[in-house]
């Protein structure tokens, strides 16, 4: 059964990786039109995540596939139980995913505005719905003795679940604003920094409320867990670092805040994977949902071999695209092959 | 319609749609990689322009392919939780491996390729498009291994306490004869699809008379890939038919609407009537021995009739209806085979013109080649209908019936809402993707980067 525990940890790592990486590009998606009004600026903002978002999103795909493979009953109960929420999530992912590619393909203001709206909406829906789902894991939804979901759509909107969604949205906004400030120059950078400065204290209060609620929901005594403590410290540290103009360190702090916030849910959840609000005897656990030992062994080998390779080339991507972008480089006609759209990034300030 | 019908309709709709984009993606990524390799080797600017031109068509397809693939992954849990719960131990493994071993590769290197033009050394940049192509092909390998397991389950034991299949030999999933042939067949079909798209776009541009020296090159490449790939795809496809016939005799008997066991068996070119309630359709032009040959690889091979397999299955699995929809089975097989033949004729015609150096000057061929772009999509769809409909009523052959795979906790209304949502969204995506593809494919190549300019970064 040790392998099942390993896979629970790995799935927690995959979800955390998803929010740490896609978290900032979701934030960028939500902010790109709010933060910047002019077209070159918007393009600069979108292009900060251009080469990265697709690879980041695979963390979600892999997290879901890993749940399917390692804990089939968890995957089955969660997705069938949250059916309509998952439809909403997929709609968000679809409109967001294609908006990157479609937005610049036709040179028309109305066309771009449409995709701006869809990119913003999609980027908001995704962390909100996944947040509600993650919150529901811990808070509990009606699950019967047959491990099947026994409630209806309204049961998904638990107070804690919705607040988890809001917390993750707020963290994505802060993470995204910090990222834009780190990756751009000039006016865009200033505006992003200002927004991050204003958002950080709000995020700090939200995270504080969230970890308090998480801890009381789990009901394991007064001893606060380290992840929860770290989340609160990190988010306030981020606020201070942004205010003092340390963009790189601020981004590291929002990364840590995001990671520890997600981790705290999984820490409180273990050894359960999905709590039943009907009867704690019906809880889905690491043990009663795991695949057989052989399947887990095979996948463990695959994960141990491949995950470092994936991390290596994804890190390399971040290294290749490490330079800042500036709005002035997006003045010309756009789109692939569009002449004059050449990007000559500035050296890091 | 029941929840089961709607869940099946939803799966059929989303799979068919997803698989319109996947083969183009796989095929065009290899062809684009070849074009960029040609540029790398020869330094001719025409190849660079073609690389970027077809690369843009490629990424439009990837965008839609990726987002619709998400729906496929989540649907197993949403609509088919009975299935996921039962077989996740075996079926989940290749899916998780796809994420870790293929999808990360394809997505990450696509970003590097798109945005790395002026940031990576030329050789490394060439490597990134090959990584995208390999990632796409690997992704298909894991999906085909999972699908082949549903056609012919191997490498598992039934757990005596849960009654569910458990993986006990992962290697068996990847040496499954249905997988080996099925995967090769899909890869070749993808090359055919990519090549026919490239041929159609090149033909359009040649007809317009713009940049003939550029699009002559891509027309040549597409034809040189198309014809051999199509021939091999047909060969492997007929081998796959024999393999499937061995493990799923219903599938092959259904493809001929053959109710009685025969030996030798003839293949009908056409039939009038047929269907599950009409056991004596009127066969038109029966070619002797051909079905024996296709189904068994022997001139006089015996093919079990639907009635014989039905009574065998009833003995083994208990009473029930084990015959799939014969109308779909019979016609999807023929649509696939006949249209593939048409595609082959187009390809041979093109090769003949190419040899006589008259390709760009043959308006009739160019016109036909543009319209021929619909062929691979119809062929691919028919191929999947043949293979997936032929598995019914099983969701996993011999292990679980489709009706036992649906989610018990999901209501009919819920599935209906989601079908409506995805139908509208997919329709909108289809329109936008089609508009963008045709707009871009018709674009003057003069708008492509000219030689004196440094290669600009592709940006959003």
Automatic annotation (TrEMBL), chain A:
Its main location: membrane. NCBIfam families: cydB. The chain crosses the membrane at residues 6-36, 82-102, 114-137, 157-182, 194-216, 222-242, 249-270, 294-313. GO terms for cellular component: cytochrome complex; plasma membrane. Keywords: Cell membrane, Electron transport, Heme, Iron, Membrane, Metal-binding, Transmembrane, Transmembrane helix, Transport. It is a multi-pass membrane protein. The gene is cydB. It comes from the Bacteria. One of its GO terms (biological process) is aerobic electron transport chain. The keyword Disulfide bond does not apply. Belongs to the cytochrome ubiquinol oxidase subunit 2 family. This is Cytochrome d ubiquinol oxidase subunit II. One of its GO terms (molecular function) is electron transfer activity. It comes from Kitasatospora acidiphila. It is found in: Cell membrane.
From TrEMBL, chain B:
The keyword Cell division does not apply. Keywords: Cell membrane, Electron transport, Heme, Iron, Membrane, Metal-binding, Transmembrane, Transmembrane helix, Transport. The keyword Transmembrane applies. Signal peptide: none annotated. The chain crosses the membrane at residues 16-38, 50-71, 91-115, 127-146, 183-205, 217-237, 335-354, 366-386, 415-436. One of its GO terms (molecular function) is electron transfer activity. It is found in: Cell membrane. Its main location: membrane. One of its GO terms (biological process) is aerobic electron transport chain. This is Cytochrome ubiquinol oxidase subunit I.
């Amino acid at each position: 059964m040790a392998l099942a525990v390993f896979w629970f940890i790995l799935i927690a790592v995959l979800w955390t990786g998803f929010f740490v990486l896609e978290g900032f590009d979701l934030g960028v998606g939500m902010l790109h039109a709010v933060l910047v009004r002019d077209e070159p600026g918007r393009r600069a903002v979108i292009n900060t995540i251009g080469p990265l978002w697709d690879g980041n999103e695979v963390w979600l795909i892999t997290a879901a596939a890993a749940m399917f493979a390692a804990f089939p009953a968890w995957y089955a109960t969660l997705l069938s139980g949250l059916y309509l929420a998952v439809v909403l999530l997929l709609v968000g992912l679809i409109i967001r995913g294609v908006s990157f590619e479609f937005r610049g393909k036709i040179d028309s203001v109305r066309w771009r505005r449409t995709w701006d709206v869809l990119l913003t909406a999609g980027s908001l829906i995704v962390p909100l719905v996944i947040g509600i789902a993650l919150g529901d894991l811990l808070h509990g939804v009606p699950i019967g003795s047959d491990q099947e979901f026994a409630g209806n759509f309204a049961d998904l909107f638990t107070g804690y679940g919705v607040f988890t969604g809001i917390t993750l949205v707020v963290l994505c906004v802060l993470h995204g604003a910090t990222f834009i400030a780190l990756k751009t120059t000039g006016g865009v950078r200033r505006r992003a920094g200002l927004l991050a400065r204003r958002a950080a204290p709000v995020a700090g209060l939200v995270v504080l409320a969230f970890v308090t609620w998480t801890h009381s929901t789990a009901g394991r005594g007064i001893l606060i867990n380290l992840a929860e403590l770290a989340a609160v410290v990190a988010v306030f540290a981020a606020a201070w670092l942004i205010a003092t103009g340390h963009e790189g360190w601020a981004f590291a702090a929002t990364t840590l805040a995001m990671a520890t916030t997600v981790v705290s849910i999984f820490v409180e959840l273990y050894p359960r994977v999905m709590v039943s609000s009907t009867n704690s005897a019906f809880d889905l656990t690491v043990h009663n949902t795991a695949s057989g030992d052989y399947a887990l062994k095979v996948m463990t080998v695959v994960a141990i071999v491949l995950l470092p390779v994936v991390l290596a080339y994804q890190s390399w991507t971040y290294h290749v695209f490490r330079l800042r972008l500036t709005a002035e480089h997006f003045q010309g006609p756009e789109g692939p092959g569009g002449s004059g759209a050449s990007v000559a990034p500035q050296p890091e300030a | 319609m029941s929840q089961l019908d709607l869940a099946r309709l939803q799966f059929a709709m989303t799979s068919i749609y997803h698989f319109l984009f996947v083969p183009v993606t796989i095929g065009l990524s290899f062809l684009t990689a070849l074009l960029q390799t040609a540029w790398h080797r020869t330094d001719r600017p025409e190849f660079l322009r073609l690389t970027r031109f077809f690369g843009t068509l490629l990424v439009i397809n990837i965008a839609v392919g990726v987002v619709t693939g998400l729906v496929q992954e989540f649907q197993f849990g949403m609509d088919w939780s009975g299935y996921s719960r039962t077989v996740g131990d075996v079926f989940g493994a290749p899916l998780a491996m796809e994420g870790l071993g293929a999808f990360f590769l394809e997505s990450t290197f696509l970003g590097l390729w798109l945005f790395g033009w002026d940031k990576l050394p030329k050789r490394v940049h060439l490597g990134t498009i090959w990584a995208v192509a390999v990632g796409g092909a690997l992704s298909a390998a894991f999906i085909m291994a999972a699908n082949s397991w549903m056609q012919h389950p191997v490498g598992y034991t039934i757990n005596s306490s849960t009654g569910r299949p458990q993986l006990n030999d992962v290697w068996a999933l990847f040496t499954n004869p249905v997988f080996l042939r099925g995967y090769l067949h899909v890869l070749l079909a993808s090359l055919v699809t990519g090549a026919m798209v490239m041929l159609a776009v090149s033909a359009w541009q040649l007809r317009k008379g713009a940049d003939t020296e550029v699009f002559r090159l891509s027309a040549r490449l597409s034809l040189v890939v198309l014809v051999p790939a199509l021939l091999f795809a047909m060969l492997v496809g007929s081998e796959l038919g024999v393999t499937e016939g061995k493990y799923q005799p219903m599938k092959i008997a259904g493809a001929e609407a053959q109710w009685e066991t025969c030996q030798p068996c003839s293949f009908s070119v056409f039939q009038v009537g047929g269907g599950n309630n009409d056991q004596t359709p009127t066969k038109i032009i029966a070619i002797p021995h051909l079905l024996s040959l296709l189904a068994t690889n022997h001139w006089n091979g015996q093919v079990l009739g639907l009635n014989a397999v039905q009574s065998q299955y009833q003995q083994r699995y208990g009473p029930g209806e084990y015959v799939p929809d014969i109308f779909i089975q019979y016609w999807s097989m023929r649509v696939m085979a006949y249209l593939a033949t048409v595609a082959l004729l187009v390809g041979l015609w093109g090769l003949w013109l190419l040899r006589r150096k008259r390709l760009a000057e043959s308006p009739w061929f160019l016109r036909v080649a543009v319209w021929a772009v619909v062929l691979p999509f119809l062929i691919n769809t028919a191929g999947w209908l043949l293979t997936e409909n032929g598995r019914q009523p099983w969701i996993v052959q011999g292990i679980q019936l489709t009706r036992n795979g649906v989610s018990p906790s999901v209501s009919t209304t819920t599935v209906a809402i989601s079908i409506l949502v995805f139908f509208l969204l997919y329709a909108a995506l289809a329109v936008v993707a089609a508009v963008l593809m045709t707009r871009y494919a018709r674009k003057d190549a003069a708008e492509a980067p000219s030689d004196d300019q440094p290669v600009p970064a592709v940006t959003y």
